[in-house]
Design goal:
Length: 429
C-alpha cells in the first residue's frame, strides 16, 4: 500500500504528520495534497530512518544536490564526503548520479547513511551493468533496463528519474524544428541513440505499466525526466521540449491512477523572460504535479559561476510555481564537482529557495530575516552569524576582518557606521 493510497483512504501516517509539523501546515491539509498528487513525499518503503521531506503546493521550496562518480573518477569515500557536505549545507535530498566505478557500492553506502531522500537515474545502472558484460549501450534490452530499476528499488532508492517522455515522436519534433545544441540530457541522448539503432520505441514509455508496478511495490516516487530539456537559451521552450512535457502530463495521470507519486522535471537553460511561462505551462499540462527544475540557468556564458546563474533562475522559477530546485555547482559544464563546489551549490540554491519562499508568502518564511534585521540594529554580531544561511563562512569572514578601533563596527564603515549614526539621529541614543 503506497503513501498516496493511504492518503486517499483518509489516513495520516507518521511520515505525513512529521512533515506537516516541519512545514507548519495542518496534517489533514498535507494528506489531501498528497492524495491529489499536488505534493509528494519520497520514501521507499524499505527506508525507515530518514527525515520526511514533502515537496509541492503551498510548502517551502526544497533543494536537491547531485553527487556521483564518473568513469574517469570513481571514489566511494569522495562521494560519501560530498553527500555529507550537501546534507550539512542544508540539502533536502541527494541524487546519486554515478556512472562509473563501483556504482552499486556507492549507492548502497549513500543509502545506508544519508538522512534525507535519495534519488537516482537507473538508466545509468543499465548502461554500467551492460558494459561489465561486454555489451554496448544499443545492445541492451528492455529487460536490461528494468533490471537496473528493480535492483535500485530493492536497495531502497526513494525517487527515480526515468525518461519516459523521450519518444520517437518527440525526437521527430526535435529533428523537424532543429536545435542549436540537440540533446544535452545523458539519459535522453542514450535513449535517442538506442531507439535509432533498434528502430523501436522507448521501453520506459512502451512498458510504462511495468515501471508503475515496481514503483507501487516499493512506494517509489517517479521523477519524470526531461530528456529533451534545452541545453542553451536558444533552444528554450521549443517544440521538442513542449512535446515531451505534454507526454509527461499524460503519464502523470496514469501514475496517479495506480497510487504512485509523481513529480515532473523541468528545463535547464531558460532566459529570464520565459521562466514564468514555463512554470505555468508545466502546472497546466501536468495537472499541478510538483515541478523539479535544474536551475534554470539564465545565461550560457558563465562557466565557473553557474551556481549564480542557476540561483537567479531558480529564484524566479520557484516564485513562479516550481517546487523543487536541483542545485548547480561552480563546476557545471567543466568537471566533476569537488566537495567545496557541492557546498557552494547547495548554499546558492538555498538562497534562491528562501527568496522564493518569502515572495510566495509561505508562513514564517521571513521570520529569520526579521530577526537578522533586529540583530543588525543592535550590532549583535554573534546573533547575525548564527542566523546566517552559512554561519561558517560568516564567522570566518567576520573573524578575518582587520581590527578596528570600534569592535561593534566592521572594516567597511568603522567610525562611519550608519547604524550607530542613525541611533543618534533618529533614536536619540
Amino acid at each position: 500500500m503506497t503513501l498516496m493510497h493511504r492518503a486517499r483512504a483518509g489516513e495520516i501516517p507518521p511520515a505525513i504528520a512529521l512533515a506537516a509539523q516541519s512545514e507548519q501546515v495542518d496534517p489533514a491539509t498535507l494528506r489531501d495534497r498528497i492524495a491529489t498528487g499536488k505534493v509528494v513525499l519520497p520514501r521507499n518503503r524499505k527506508r525507515r530512518e530518514i527525515r520526511p521531506v514533502a515537496i509541492g503546493e503551498g510548502l517551502t521550496i526544497k533543494v536537491n544536490a547531485n553527487v556521483g562518480s564518473s568513469r574517469d573518477r570513481a571514489d566511494i569515500s569522495l562521494e560519501m564526503e560530498k553527500m555529507r557536505a550537501a546534507v550539512a549545507a542544508g540539502a533536502d535530498a541527494v541524487m546519486d548520479l554515478s556512472t562509473g566505478g563501483p556504482i552499486d557500492e556507492i549507492r548502497r553506502a549513500i543509502l545506508a547513511e544519508c538522512p534525507v531522500p535519495v534519488g537516482t537515474v537507473p538508466l545509468y545502472q543499465a548502461a554500467a551493468d551492460g558494459n561489465l558484460r561486454g555489451k554496448s549501450w544499443v545492445e541492451l534490452t528492455a529487460d536490461d533496463f528494468f533490471a537496473g530499476i528493480e535492483k535500485q528499488a530493492l536497495d531502497g532508492v526513494d525517487f527515480m528519474t526515468v525518461h519516459c517522455g523521450v519518444t520517437r515522436a518527440s525526437i521527430g519534433a526535435l529533428v523537424r524544428e532543429g536545435r542549436r545544441l540537440d540533446i544535452v540530457s545523458r539519459g535522453g541522448s542514450l535513449l535517442a541513440e538506442w531507439m535509432e539503432h533498434n528502430g523501436q520505441e522507448n521501453p520506459f514509455h512502451e512498458q510504462y505499466d511495468r515501471l508503475l508496478a515496481i514503483c507501487r511495490e516499493y512506494d517509489i516516487t517517479i521523477s519524470l525526466g526531461d530528456g529533451l530539456r534545452p541545453g542553451c537559451l536558444a533552444d528554450a521552450t521549443d517544440r521538442a521540449q513542449v512535446h515531451e512535457l505534454m507526454t509527461l502530463g499524460e503519464l502523470t495521470e496514469r501514475a496517479w491512477a495506480k497510487d504512485v507519486q509523481v513529480m515532473v522535471e523541468g528545463p535547464g537553460h531558460v532566459p529570464m523572460h520565459q521562466i514564468a511561462a514555463n512554470m505555468v505551462l508545466q502546472k497546466r499540462l501536468c495537472h499541478g504535479a510538483p515541478f523539479y527544475v535544474l536551475g534554470p540557468l539564465v545565461t550560457d556564458i558563465a562557466p565557473g559561476y553557474d551556481h549564480i546563474t542557476s540561483a537567479i533562475g531558480g529564484a524566479i522559477a520557484a516564485w513562479s510555481g516550481a517546487d523543487f530546485l536541483c542545485y548547480v555547482t561552480p563546476s557545471e559544464h567543466l568537471r566533476l564537482p569537488p566537495v567545496e563546489d557541492v557546498r557552494e551549490g547547495v548554499i546558492a540554491t538555498r538562497i534562491a529557495a528562501h527568496a522564493a519562499d518569502i515572495a510566495r508568502g509561505i508562513p514564517g518564511a521571513m521570520d529569520r530575516d526579521n530577526r537578522m534585521a533586529d540583530a543588525r540594529r543592535a550590532l549583535d554580531w554573534k546573533t547575525q552569524i548564527e542566523l546566517s544561511i552559512d554561519p561558517e563562512r560568516a564567522s570566518a569572514w567576520r573573524g578575518g576582518s582587520f581590527p578596528t578601533a570600534d569592535e561593534a563596527a566592521c572594516t567597511m564603515c568603522a567610525d562611519l557606521c550608519a547604524i550607530k549614526t542613525s541611533r543618534k539621529a533618529i533614536r536619540k541614543e
